[in-house]
Amino acid sequence: MKYIFLLVSLVSFTVSGQNKAIINEVKKHQEEQNMLFKTKETSPLKEENRKAFTGLDFFDINLKYRVKATLQRTPQASFFKMKTTTSRVSEERVYGVVTFVLEGKEHKLNVYQGKQLMTQKGYEDYLFLPFFDKTNGYSTYGGGRYLDLRIPDGNTIIIDFNKAYNPYCSYNERYSCPIVPNDNYVNVLIEAGVKAYKKY
Q: Whose CA is closest to 108, among 142, 140, 72?
């Protein structure tokens, strides 16, 4: 019995340590986002709003919204012109389909790869995941939210909705933001990441 107790304790300690590291990673991400918004050179906010800015409104970090998904690549997908909030279009292709379980339901979303970003240093493996969920228009921005991902080595990928963020056009209409495709709807409340922006 002593050995079983020690084994269970060791596993619990390891899981607890991993969770703490993940939470700290998300906190660091949030701090970086706030600093980006506060800094004049990088902030998407209008100047009067930036000066009054005290921090983004985040949901509490909840690791149930960090999911392991399977990635089915679609190597034959062609580039298409994704509509944006302005007359500009963004050349994207469906890099693959991610499948994951959240709130006891299976969900499938397209992940996209931008033609222009593929050629930029540091973004060769960048993937774009725009999505809707049942919080949009209530606690979160009505136009959906985004996630940044990186191409994994294998066929699994971690999707952490605690890092979900708003399109920049939700802060300032001068930005041109890709419109979230209707297919990328998660039919649950994703109470994680950034909430709707309120000007004070």
A: 72
Name the 3-class secondary structure at 151.
coil
Instruction: Give the dihedral of Cα atoms 122, 125, 131, 136; nearest 10 deg.
Output: -20
Strand partners, 102: 105
User: How far is Cα 163 from Cα 197, in angstroms, rounded to an integer?
Assistant: 15
The predicted-structure confidence for 148-170, as pLDDT tens digits, reads as follows: 999 999 999 999 999 999 999 99
Q: Following DSSP, what letter does each residue of 106-128 receive, concatenated?
A: EEEEEEEEETTGGGSTT-TTEEE
The structure tokens 């649950």 sit at 188
Query: Minimal CA–CA distance to 127: which of 147, 108, 100?
Result: 147
Which residues fall within 8 angstroms of residue 124, CB to CB, at 6 or more apart? 118
Helix (H) or strand (E) holding 4: helix 2-38
What is the spatial distance between Cα 75 and Cα 67, in angstroms, rounded to a whole number? 24
185-186 and 126-133 beta bridge pairing:
parallel
Name the pLDDT band for 198 (thresholds 50, 70, 90).
confident
| Those residues with Cβ within 8 angstroms of residue 200's Cβ, 6 or more apart along the chain or in another chain | 52, 54
Query: Per DSSP, what are the bridge partners of residue 99?
Result: 70, 108
- Which amino acid makes up residue 50? R
